[in-house]
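Collaborator request, handled under Task 6.
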Amino acid sequence: MYVGIDVGTSTVKAAAFDATGGELAVASRPVRLSLHGGLVEQDMEEVYGAVVAVLEEVTGRVPEPVELAGLTGQGDGVWLVDAEGRPVRAAASWMDGRAHELVDRWLADGTFETVFRRTGSAMFPGCPGPLLAWLDSHEPKALDAATTALYCKDMVFQRLTGAGPTTDVSDASMPFLDPRTRTYDNGVVELLGLTHRRGLLAPVSDPVSTARTRGEGLPPGTRIANGPYDLPACALGAGVTSPGDGLLIVGTCLASLVATTDLDLTGEPAGLYISTDRPGHWLRAMPAMVGTAALDWVLSTTGVRHEEVDGLLAETPPGAHGVRVLPYFAPSGERAPFVEPRLRAELTGFSLESTRADLVRATCEGIGYAARHCLQAAGLTGTLAVCGGGTRSPAWMRLLADVLGRPLRVVEGEVGARGAVLAAAERYGVALDAQVWTRPTAVVEPEAGRAAYYATGYEEHLARLREARERARA
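Structure tokens returned to the collaborator:
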């Protein structure tokens, strides 16, 4: 069997696959986020313990030899470790907002745009550049104690294998990697005031690192590959590799990815270019901060269960009786398809006659409009695959197809873990049929009348968003 590990923001999963990509078993463990005063952190020991636990469960349930394992996980943030891969402080999550004042300053003085023009990375508060600069000013002793500033999957890889610290070109893409040379741009390091911390940046393995496991979670000697991180891993797992084709990940983060061979560093700085294991091939990524997390907040606030969503979506018509939601719920604002650290969610059009169904539909519509904005900015011209937790709701998928105005290739299951296995197989020269592994489970077509209605609604969404961005800057 083949094992994929996906170390997500709120859930750690391991999936076992057969040679044709069929899922044999899946195990998951929740992991906590600590949110306080704009800081969003995670306990690395808890995360690593969850990885070991899900691997033990999966290998225990499927008593077959592990041919190889692929590892992926959440990107960005700062995971400071010592030489043994042990934490020197809690991990700062990609959702963290503590460095928003730095990003504001860099937006104002031109640093932000200069970095984008050099690396294709539009920085946001939770990416390594601002976080490392903030820690250098406020917690220099933590940086002094660290050997490496890793990303999530890299910490897990080091602990599972005992290999030296390393990352890959996908994780390194934000914000220091030059996408043309596939090496760190020391000029960007200097621009951010981090030259004296340059040694903390993890060595970039190109292609991804491989090693053998030490025996925790997986049998000792298991072949494992480190990466790519979750966004490009999902693209691989959904079969999105041809230029122009796209992927929408409806998960905690709402991520839009379009495969491209065109590196265009002009235009409004936003999102990033994710380097892949194929030189000259990138993913133009517009990873919005909040996806299903916005709906989760609305559900928990109103006391609605996830199982009720499909029924509620059927209770109210398109437009939700005038209720509108701008779904920018993250404490660090928005990062794609624009960067606005102070932007917050807005709920309008409510009255005493509004229902829970109106609020749920308006939230789903708002997320759909945000996704359409991201996909348009990323340059989608081909087919669109969709994956993530949101695909479990058939009604939401129908709504999303209508809002986006295009067919959706729905790819269910553990898509990130599947992509991690395919990346590992490529790295080890193991022949797996990618077309079979990535075939969609369904294709959802838009309904023409609703699609036309939402095309107008999208223009209205953009107008409200422009006004909200102006207020955020005031």
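The cover message to the collaborator said: "The longest strand covers residues 23-30. The chain has a mean pLDDT of 95. Please let us know whether this matches your experimental observations."
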